[in-house]
Design goal:
The complex is a heterodimer of chains A (265) and B (679).
Chain A: H1 13-23, H2 28-46, H3 50-65, H4 71-80, H5 91-105, H6 114-134, H7 144-153, H8 157-180, H9 197-214, H10 216-233, H11 238-258
Chain B: E1 4-9, E2 23-26, E3 32-36, E4 43-44, H1 49-67, E5 85-92, H2 95-99, H3 101-115, E6 118-125, E7 138-139, E8 149-152, H4 157-169, E9 174-180, H5 183-202, E10 209-217, H6 230-244, E11 249-251, H7 256-260, H8 279-293, E12 298-300, H9 308-317, H10 347-358, H11 383-400, H12 403-407, H13 424-452, H14 454-458, H15 467-471, E13 501-505, E14 508-512, E15 519-521, H16 525-535, H17 543-552, H18 568-590, H19 594-613, H20 626-646, H21 650-655, E16 661-662, E17 668-669
Parallel strand pairs in B: 1-2, 1-5, 4-7, 5-6, 8-9, 8-11, 9-10, 11-12
Antiparallel strand pairs in B: 3-10, 13-14, 14-15, 16-17
Classes of the chains: A mainly alpha (265), B alpha/beta (679).
């Protein structure tokens, strides 16, 4: 019981280059770039993953649902989007119901890839962080009013931009590490790239920071998109979400390839 | 659909309305055999035939799961092929029941989450049903021993903890259902069974009833080792046994960390971490079995809020510590021998050993039984090292995380919180607490290991790749090494670089242009030629000479010597260089330039000797196209290196374009203004 399956990187030229860069001390930015180049074909194939689209669509529905004038309306709007919460949901119930809603929509795994799975997890993490921070760092025992207020706050251009940036930064970081984690530990030890696991951890942190810096471009783009699309179309459709996800991911990947701006916060 | 298979079960001969490119025939009694080893104490019961259907369906799912491979490990297509599309056609006794949408939905929903595959079932009439007695120890007459609980007993540490809890501590009459995958495991299981029975006698507890069930299948059907659906078969058998005892509950005993199985590494996505006893799976099984039994059927995991060290401690405290060494946790069963019962490298072995050490039970679990010692043995590159690194790093990180940080790092918790008893908030709090406890237990083992082996670590007596060396920097005095529980953010050493750099760094080149971010250029002939050209700016260097210089001392240009002897390009470079020298000699003879003649002669002799030493013969014969071939290959190599540079620094790649860098017979680097390259 409890088996976990790990794998290696293929021995192709592209992946060999990633491993070579890892071994030879290349910076996180360069390795991220090489990884995305090597993974390009697979990521392109997975870009239409239904779970990815559903995740992005549901993320847009949270702040819109929270605009309801009272808790009943808020809960009703969540349920209408497929997020089956109780009458008085707290933070963790919303996080759980959000994830369950995606699973329910993509029943029987039809068309799923690991990219969709990573998107779903990244979204849960982003919601937990956004709500945790906006409810005084408390995830447990939060009142529904506070949850609604925190989600409603995400509906402004600035806040949705930041929320969206968090999500795309996480999914990108997860994606890069999805590949790199198959090789990094082989470069730990005396005389190797990382002397200790702690140094390997520092490298992972550098990658995370790089993804966060690069995702600044998504923040700017997302900020106006939600309110503009919602205003013009009277709601956000799954097709809108698909287009939004494609553009955001493309911008972010281009930025990562070009090298992130070092002064972005 | 590349990873699709029609599974034709029993007498089914076609996939009905579904078409699949490939099909697999599975027949119980032919390719697959399901039986109980021990029929000495049969259970008297008349089991509804729908349970026989359940067991057959679970058997087919389990065997198909092993017979159809998952397509690689996800790198090429981001896991698309990992998820298979399995189209089952299953003959059953109760067609109407299994075609019921509610039953179908419960089955598909549970299995698709359990193994992350796509399931489709078509149920058809079973013409020649087998008797349940052929699978399990049932009899319609006779006396049945009283049993109050049916528990799944894999023979691992957690299920041993459960058996100790039920049989020894609570003194309850229980049935232990065991699914035995291999004969090797059976011997150890029997020993454990005898010890449990003996201990039960000592404490005046009822003797446990053992129900071992074995599946044999043709060897060709064992192609995929992940076996994600195993717990469905295992639970289905247990539920049928419970039904025979008129019970409406079974128990799994699995520690919470493994049950929730949050990923230890970013590459572990979805069911790459098993969901064997995930709360959603448990609830799904409960839903299926309730429909089958036509009454509420519960499945419990009483250890869901315990860590593995806590389970081990409970076993020891119950006076059953000597059982531990007979419990088997390792999944690499093919590696096991009588003496080495655990590989020490798989996730289960690592988890088990940490638990035993954290519980202070090392004496009851001999270190010699592990192929690789947790703390001090070298770990091979690949899964072994990645697994231990990921396990320890995860624990080390979790100890430092606040609740918000934890939940914003493990999105997988979202899949759990609403599927446990109690509110989502309470469940989340308990999960956080569980992981904090477990992580601290793991970190404590590492810290104690460092303390116990301080001298060997400092003096580098331990292998480089053992866990204790991986967590300690021996360049720092050990007294200054922080315990792993302390927050540390070490920085990688930074090189002090000039504004323009193209020089060796380890086994590669470090490159920097105009003071921008430096980057690594992997070794290649093109990079070596570029380096030579940058070293002599504004001076044409013949392509032959460039190729010859690099071919002569490949180590100097970090190309290594692999395959050098068969390197046709290197031979061509030598021949072309020899040809150049011959031409120089002819000219020197015409000019009566004796000094040049002597120099060229000496160089030609040296070159001939080198050719001999390399096994390429002596003085080379002239080949007409050598110089042209070398010129072309030098140009291609330089352009390839520039293309590589473009991926990391477009401006520099642009800088290395004509007219600043020109190839041809005599490549030359002529920057617009002088650049002080650090070479």
């Amino acid at each position: 019981m409890g088996h976990t399956r790990l794998g290696d990187l293929p021995r192709t030229r592209r992946w060999g280059e990633v491993v070579g860069l890892l071994a030879n001390g290349a910076a996180a930015e360069q390795i991220a770039n090489a990884t995305l180049n090597a993974a390009e074909r697979g990521l392109h194939l997975a870009a239409d993953d239904k779970a990815l689209v559903e995740t992005v669509w549901l993320l847009t529905q949270l702040p819109l649902a929270a605009r309801a004038k009272d808790i009943k309306g808020f809960v009703g709007a969540l349920r209408q989007a497929g997020v089956q919460v109780s009458d008085q949901p707290g933070v963790m119930e919303v996080v759980g119901a959000f994830s369950d809603a995606i699973d329910a929509r993509i029943s029987n795994n039809g068309g799923r890839t690991d990219l969709g799975e990573m998107a779903q997890m990244a979204a849960s993490e982003t919601i937990a962080k956004a709500l945790g921070e906006r409810t005084s760092g408390s995830l447990f025992g939060t009142h529904t009013e506070d949850v609604q207020k925190a989600l409603a706050a995400l509906g402004t251009n600035k806040q949705f931009g930041e929320f969206s940036r968090q999500f795309f930064s996480r999914i990108t970081n997860r994606c890069i590490n999805y590949f790199l984690s198959r090789a990094v530990a082989n470069h730990v030890g005396e005389g190797k790239r990382f002397t200790t696991l702690a140094q390997q951890g520092a490298f992972n942190q550098a990658l995370e920071v790089h993804c966060r810096q690069a995702s600044k471009i998504v923040e700017v783009f997302s900020g106006g998109w939600l309110s503009k699309t919602n205003f013009e179309k009277g709601g956000i459709s799954r097709d809108d979400a698909r287009g939004f996800a494609h553009v955001a991911m493309r911008k972010l990947v281009d930025e990562l390839k070009a090298g992130a701006r070092p002064n972005a916060k | 659909m590349p990873n699709e298979r029609a599974i034709l079960c029993g007498s089914a001969t076609s996939g009905g309305s579904r078409q699949a490119a490939k099909s697999l025939q599975l027949r119980i009694g032919n390719e697959v055999h399901l039986k109980s080893d021990d029929l000495s104490r049969p259970v008297t019961a008349d089991i509804p035939s729908v349970f026989a259907d359940l067991i057959e369906i679970a058997t087919y799912v389990y065997v198909a799961d092993q017979a159809v491979t998952r397509g690689g490990d996800g790198v090429e297509n981001v896991g698309a092929d990992w998820r298979r599309r399995l189209l089952f056609t299953v003959p059953v006794r109760n067609v109407k029941f299994w075609r019921n949408p509610e039953v179908m939905e419960a089955l598909v929903e549970t299995l698709s989450f359990l193994s992350e595959d796509e399931y489709h079932f078509e149920f058809v009439e079973l013409l020649k049903p087998r008797q349940m007695q052929q699978y399990l120890p049932f009899s319609k007459t006779g006396k049945t021993q009283a049993v109050q609980e049916v528990i799944l007993f894999s023979g691992g540490l957690d299920s041993l903890g459960g058996a100790v809890q039920e049989v020894i501590l609570d003194k309850r009459p229980v049935a232990l259902v065991n699914h035995r995958p291999t004969e090797k495991m059976s011997r150890r299981y029997r020993h454990l069974q005898e010890m449990l029975s003996s201990k039960a006698r000592d404490v005046n507890a009822p003797q446990p009833v053992h129900v071992p069930v074995r599946i044999n299948k043709e060897k060709r059907l064992s192609r995929e080792y992940t076996q994600r659906s195993r717990s469905f078969l295992y639970a289905s058998i247990a539920a049928t046994i419970a039904q025979a005892y008129d019970l409406s509950r079974i128990r799994f005993y699995e520690n919470g960390v493994v049950s929730l199985n949050l990923p230890v590494s970013p590459q572990v996505v979805g069911a790459k971490a098993t969901r064997t006893t995930h709360p959603r799976v448990i609830n799904g099984f409960s839903r299926i079995f309730s429909l089958v039994a036509d009454r509420t059927f519960a499945i419990e995991n009483p250890f869901v809020w315990k860590t593995k060290p806590e389970v081990v401690k409970q076993i020891v405290d119950a006076g059953c510590g000597e059982f531990i060494k007979y419990a088997t946790s390792c999944t690499h069963t093919w590696e096991l021998t009588k003496l080495t019962t655990h590989c020490g490298t798989c996730s289960q072995c690592i988890d088990r050993r940490f638990a035993v050490l954290a519980a202070g039970a090392a004496a009851m679990d001999p270190a010699e039984a592990y192929g690789v010692d947790l703390l001090v043995h070298p770990r091979a590159e690949g899964e072994s090292r990645t697994m231990i690194a990921a396990y320890v790093e995860t624990a080390s990180n979790v100890t430092k995380q606040s609740a918000v940080e934890f939940f914003s790092r493990y999105g997988e918790v979202g899949r759990v919180v609403r599927h446990l008893n109690g509110s989502a908030d309470v469940s989340a709090m308990q999960i956080y607490d569980l992981y904090q406890r477990h992580s601290k237990q793991v970190v404590k083992v590492v810290d104690e290991g460092i303390a116990a082996h301080a001298s060997e670590i400092r003096s580098r007596l331990l292998p480089d790749s053992c866990l204790l060396r991986l967590v300690c920097d021996t360049a720092i005095p050990l007294s200054m090494t922080l315990p792993t529980s302390e927050p540390v953010t070490p920085q990688e050493p930074q090189l002090a670089l000039k504004k323009f750099v193209f020089r060796k760094k380890g086994q590669a080149w470090v490159v920097r242009h105009s003071g921008k971010q430096d980057f690594i250029l992997l070794p290649s002939k093109g990079a070596a030629y570029l380096h030579l050209l940058l070293s002599s700016p504004r001076q044409p260097v013949s392509a032959v000479n460039l190729a010859f210089q690099v071919a002569r001392v490949p180590h100097q240009f970090i190309l290594g010597d692999a395959g050098e002897r068969s390197d046709k390009e290197a031979q061509a470079a030598y021949r072309a260089r020899y040809q150049e020298l011959q031409e120089e000699m002819t000219q020197a003879e015409k000019d009566n330039d004796e000094a040049t003649q002597n120099r060229v002669r000496s160089e030609m002799n040296d070159l001939a000797d080198e050719l001999k030493d390399r096994g390429w013969g002596g003085r080379p014969k002239k080949e007409h196209n050598d110089r042209d071939r070398v010129r072309k290959s030098v140009g291609i190599a330089i352009r390839r290196a520039v293309k590589q540079i473009a991926e990391y620094d477009k401006e520099l790649a642009e800088h290395f374009q004509s007219p600043r860098l020109r190839c041809g017979n005599s490549p030359i680097y002529e920057p617009d203004s002088d650049i002080d390259w650090d070479l």
